[in-house]
Records
---
Amino acid sequence: MKPASFGYVRAESLEEALDALRQHGPEARIIAGGQSLMPMLNMRLTKPAMLVDVMRIAALKEPHVEKGALVVPAGVRQAILLERPKLADDLPLLASALPWVGHIQTRARGTLCGSVAHADPSAEIPLCLVALEGEVRLRARRKARRITAEAFFTGMMVTEKADDEMIEAIAYPLRRRGTGYSFAEVGRRHGDFAIVACAAVVDSARMRLAIGGVADRPTARDFPHLDGSALDDALNAFAWDLGAGDDLHATARYRRDLVRSLGRRVLEDAAKVTKGETNREAAPCRS
Amino acid sequence: MGIEHTTFVGRSVERVEDAALLSGFGRYIDDLGTRPGTLHAAILRSPHAHADIVGIDIEVARALPGIVAVVTGRDLANITTGLVPAVRAALDARAIAVDRVRYVGEPVAIVVARDRYLAEDGCDLIEAQYRVRTAVVDPVAALAPDAPVLHEGVGSNLVSDRRFRYGDPETAFAESPHSLSVTVRYPRNTGSPMETYGVVATYDPTDDSYDVLANFQGPFSIHAVVARALKVPGNRLRLRTPPDSGGSFGVKQGVAPYAVLIAATARLVGQPVKWIEDRLEHLSASVSATNRVTTLKAAFDGEGRVTVLNWDQVEDCGAYLRAPEPATLYRMHGNLTGAYAIRNVAVRNRVVLTNKTPTGLVRGFGGPQVYYPLERLMQCIARKLGLDPFAVIRRNLIPADAFPYRTATGALYDSGDYQRALDEAARDGELDDLKRRRDAARAEGRLYGIGLTAAVEPSVSNMGYITTVLTAAERAKAGPKNGAQSTATITLDPVGSVTVQVASVPQGQGHRTVLAQVVADVLGIPMGQVRVTTDLDTAKDAWSIASGNYSSRFAAAVAGVAHLAATQLRDKLARIAAAQLNLRPEDLVFADGRIASRTNPDAGLPFGRVAATSHWSPGLVPEDIGSAIRETVFWTPPELTAPDADDLVNSSLCHGFIFDLCGVEIDRVTGKIRIDRYVTMHDCGRVLHPGMVEGQVRGGFAQALGAAVYEELAYGDDGAFLSGTFADYLLPTATEVPDLRILHVESPSPFTPLGAKGVGEGNCMSTPVCLANAVADALGLDAIDLPLTPSKLASLAAGADEPAPPAGHAAPKPPAKPGDRTLRGEGLAQVAAPPETVWAMLLDADLLASVIPGSHGVRKLSDTHFQADVSLGVGPVKGRYKADVTLFDLEAPRTATLTGTVTGSLGSGGGSGRITLEPDGAGGTRVSYVYEAAVGGKVAAVGGRLLDGAARVIIGGFFAALARRAGGPSGRNTGLAGFLRGLLRRLLARLGASA
């Protein structure tokens, strides 16, 4: 469990990082918190020729609100965001989901953008980004672009990011008045990869449910306001469409069952806001 | 027996080990300095469960700067022999594969380099070629006449088949009104020490001797096995252990084959070699507990009184039978009737080899495999008769006045009062309250169950029990084996301070603390004046084959012999002091650092002065004492006799008792278990250090919770190993482990010097089945196997019916049967070129080379046989592979079948697929395909969760490239996921891609 040899650049500026990416192309990987990349390096699942460390870039350290969204640059660790005083007010969904990301030790180093770049289909941070219809801000040496979260994730650990691009930041739309949010997750142990993770966003016009851990990427679906058996049917169709598979930890059937049951639970929980009830303690399924 | 007065024993004194262990001053094997010139080894391991080694090309690896040597099994074959097992010499159990591999992770080559990084680089550069054989993973399947045979020399996979009969089982079955049987498939799990294996070895050619430092834990009977495998007499294998070892739970016994491997490698390279196992190696190829298929049948009366047990145990020891196996099967032989007075027993024990990692010691060692069926049976009997399980258990217990009690199978239970333990556990554990909680929960529609378990915890193994695997005639020929020698040496130095040395090889348990307690109490000195060393050097220290840290023998045997040695020394010192004080030795008291008259405390001497006498003034030492400088005592209990002609075996010296009760709730939606209350009652005889006993109970419980709910060393049907990281082999953490209610009664053992019994393994034996009984009670089940995963329990709670997919949705795939890892798929792609063009592309090596993502060239060996070098992967996970693809059943330009394999340093894959081309009516082609494939090796072990998705990406990449090459995709890009999935499968089939 020793990595193959690699080069290492500790970029002091965004430009320096982007230069390194341009120079090394597909042989380069950004390293931020390293909580996914380091194990993969040590297991030799990946052998990049060059690691570009972005954690010293001062410009990427500060989350900030911009046009109704919380912009989280590449250098922001999960633990830092979790400590943000207004996080539960600004982003109740993310505030509910972040404690489910790994463990306190991994959150102390792992970054949000790193999780998005890694694009694990069961990861909570990408799931919230998709549920909230956030965006990913990509930058290469000569150009920058913004892409919706749903378009960004294209498969398991595969994204729209080009080899010479890095994620400069991600942007989560802030909580909107009259909108309810709810998150629930089931894993084998707390901090494990989610077997199923559910994020619900409900406003007066629609119910939106995003599911992680089942398809090859976080996947969202919008429903009109439904209840009773109509909601059951809609969730059942969603559950089947996600194409669940069997693995060591859970059967496809179990995953579909959780999409149906937990999906309904989080939608109903989030819908309380539209009905004038509160759902501020929105972490219904402790597991 | 025992201690006259105790200052320290029986109290939870501060552990002397902890300051070092908690502050980074521990001295583990990887921390110790090595000789200049020490090289580092990495081990190339088999990605296949069963294959012939066709060739191992080491030239590229050897040419890498910094690589000193690449050693294969053939290289080592001349200077080593196999590791001798307890049965069947026809089975060549070597530490490294020679010509054939039989489990995933089996060593194939060793790279020796300047550092470990380079050694691993070297492993990546070795090209080992295999011819894959069919693997057999299930122990029952391995018994089938047409099963693949692992060792042709043995003739079948059955290496031992013994039947035993005690009492009159047939009559008991015939005369009892009821009978019932349970069948249990006990899964594989392990102990997962924090510190993995390590070996540092040197060979001295001038002396033909080996010096091996290894974090081995014993039993030191294995020293003989290692020496023999290295082809040296025992006195030319100096085996040393480091001062500290970071956990073992039995598992570190399994370092022995690596001691052979690294020592022999050191001999070949002529320099010291160091190897530290990493976690990937450890989980896949260190040691596993045995998995076992047991059918246990009982007959009983209308009150649930059991009259007879019939055990049929099929024990799976993995690919090789390694000493001391099949000890897991026989350790419990004497106590196959558990805590119950059952006089008729029939046993059939079969030992089977399969294509999995060889088994060895794991905490609980045979206990969980026995108590799971036994205690499931007791619950099923109660259920069948409509009785309270507590009453059924209690009714069957051995009466308190029957001790020492000889069981039907030969164990001599030393002491106990099981009824009292049961009653106190029910009272203090509030069993009635638990029943009320269950009733209340059920009234609300919740799933709540109660589990009970009674178990006898054996400790201090009889070194002869393993010979029960032999027939009485075979045993007579080989000579009797028995006993459990323990030894302690106590030394007095010239200033009268005390050093204790034992061959107990602890891994963090606190042996040094307890020994200091025991010896300080005997000698009447402060604990701080006693220094204990527990690292062992077989060239210098006193030891025997029974030495080591296993079978929970420390408190009973090692602390006991230290007490004997201290007492012997004390008696000598008393005579020395008596001569100087002109008193009788029996009138002297050792207390407060002085040796003084019982009646006149002023008439006395400082302990240190008397203790130093033999150094400074031997003339003052009474002649018949000789000297009082160093006392070494060996002790073996006379009760541990060899198995007799009737196969009666007293397999262990001590027998503690456990009674567990628990209440468990299962979440109907998630299937998760919540342990509402867990009560564990222990009788481990005399408690020497309550804090450490509690630590053992809590630790054992945590491991048992892991075995019950979280952990499994999982294999696919093809032998692929699937739980190679802690993301898939799930250990319970502090978050998952609930608090315990720990209760005690004390029935001191009459057979041990201090009255203590072992307590280290009990909960590993009792807790898995106690939780399973609670789950079975909650769900109303007759049968339940481990692990109790949420997915399994949710489906049991929900039943078979699932909401159907909506109309128009593809029919759901049938659920994969457990162990079937075949990736199956089908898909459809639109290509904007006519079928003839697509067909030609599929058969054009150059074109394929340009289409296949990551291709480094395609060689066309024939019109239908291709080989390619490809870089495959998803996201950052990439590896280079050799692909070999054959097409057949060609019907141009319509359909073809492909089979292929890929191999690379990350693993290997194989599969087949059928592709069909049809005109789409618009000048393009509709490509449809079905495929199946499987992936093995490292990728399967560490990335199983991601394989399906990876396959989609890779196959999708291929078809997308093909479509682009053919002029772009036609039609809509519908159902991308399904499309890609099919493509992936196709690609796997075609290119031999593995994720």
Note: Confidence is low (pLDDT under 50) at residues 281-287 of chain A.
---
Amino acid sequence: MEAMDAALGGGLAHGCVHEIYATEVGDAAAAAGFTLGAAIGIAGARPLLWLRSRRAVGAMGVFQGAGWADLGGAPDGGLVGVVGDTMGLLRAAVDGLRCAALGAVVVESWGAMRELDLTASRRFALAAEQSGVPLLLLRVDAAPTPSAARTRWQVTAAPSQALPGNAPGAPCFDVTLLRQRSGPSGQSWRLEWDREKCQFREGQNHEALSGAVVPVPLDRPAANRAGERHAA
Amino acid sequence: MPDAPLAMVAKVRGALRLGAVNGTARDRGMAVGMALADARAVLPDLIVAEMDEEADAHWLMRLAWRCGAWSPHVMVTPPDGLVMESTGVDHLFGGEAGLAAQVEDAMADIGMMTRVAMATTSEAAQALVRYGVHYGQGPVADEGRAIRALPTDALGLEYEAALALSRAGLKTVGDVAGRSMAAIAARFGEQTVTALRRLLGEEQAPIAPILRPRPLRFEQRFPEPIGLQSSIAACFLDLMHQAAGEMAQRDLGGRRFALTLFRSDGARHRLMIETGLPTRDPALVLRLFDERIATLADPLDPGFGYDRITLLVPLAEPLLASQNALDGEEKQEAALAELIDRLSTRLGPQALRRLVPQDSHMPEQAQCAVAAIHHPPAPWPAPAQGEPPLRPLFLFDPPQQVDVIAEVPDGPPHRFRWRSTLYEVRRFEGPERIAAQWWRRKEGEIPGMGGLTRDYYRVEDRHGRRYWIFRHGLYEEKPDPHWYMHGLFA
């Protein structure tokens, strides 16, 4: 999507850390979907390493290759790791970041995770910078803390564009760019995942027309509902 | 049924023929080479099984290993023979007769029927075993005479040469040996003379013994126990370089490495690592051992030092020396394999997995998560074009029960309560009906016994969160079917 790419200075950057926060616990699956979409977009044909904490498995269930393929990804070469302790999870992520053969590393973390402090975050950023492999840090049930991330996002599930027969359509997300190192932040977009092109496109905000209540995150400026205003 | 007539059949030029028969069958007129149809006509109660040459060869090889207990030189002569060089070893077993008796007893112990013969050359011994009548009693008293009494088939000639011999009226080896060698060479070919000379013990053919590869085991002993971390690490590296050199010579790469540290007070530490791809890179193996040591519950304590360190490679696979491709793709593959090895060593082989599709329409059985270190990737089918995601990104196993209010009893859900929160359905698609696996159930083919059908709905609530829920059972199958939450869509 041009407006978002312009705001980011050419899309999500390789070789750095991106944090993705789920607005509420209920938005965890949507945030995971956005993260996977972003990872597929960045990684291209190279394999993904998806690391999960044991709590994530308990709360969300088993990661599905069919769902992964349904979003346009390639589960064939991908690796899914489940790590019980937080330190082990972070160490595995650093090891993954040092392996230049990977397309992206995703860490699906639940809860505050005290071990994930500024030092750990800097270590991630350094490892990512050296290898060029991006880290997508998905955080659920956690409040933003200071970190060395390049961008920080907040993701909420959004109603999809209905298919004939009122069937749910392609996945839609309301995303807010909470923070960006040396760049503008605070914008929000409604994004729809385009599986064929493996990229996000602008979603339509038809809920506003029907008069339904759309959950608006508190920190989102009310005027930024449509992304076009930030196209310049 | 040890006394039942048994025959193994093999396909010979399009026809099933008996390849081997047991004693009972032979006594009742069966012979090797008979057509199966003829054999059945003669002996209707013949038990027939298919011949498995590969298994036979494998078993013969195992027997050959066993024979290593008697002689260092054992040769396999397929399909059913073993040749042992007894020169210089028979006195250990009480002479030639003692050795022959021991071999027969040992083979009888494991249920093998054997014929043993001893002769000057391996060809003569084989001929006596296969065509002689004097087998079974150790060495033949007069070897020359016994050989000369054998039929000409014992020469083991090509079909044409054997036919020519029989047409010339030469029936036994003795008949052939009585002629002048020059005449035989002129009429029946040079190979007939060679075979004859070998049978008569005038010429020796070399025996090609099977070789048992030396185990990949490397050891360092120290006159003074070592305890310093740096010297232990240097010793590891030295052992690994030795192992790498040996494996490179044999074109092998290790998949499993075991390091044993013998402490001077008798304690032993054994460390084992595995790799996904065969390797002989000392640095890589050393890194994996470092990972292994870091995961130990109680760290390695050298105490008063180690006086012996051994490295064993119990599992090795062929690994040819390779040249790096220009595009660096192999380098990437190697980097990925190393990452898998490292994470699997640190977190355990089951922590890092690959997703492999399974041939099942039950959603919870449609994929299998296998250890990445042991399994290569498997291709996934491409999703249907132009459809939204039809399978969830996360699946609950087991499914979680939800309370559903539907507008009509067998209709889609209208509202549902999951984890004590009420959700209002705005969009839905379904049902996608997935039948139970009735063929896996006892009496599943009887209506009503095959298990409950599931009706799956893709639903979206008013916040735009997407779920996969199903009703377990149709109304005609069950009066009040339950609803379950089975997965979450992106």
Note: Chain B is about 30% helix and 30% strand.
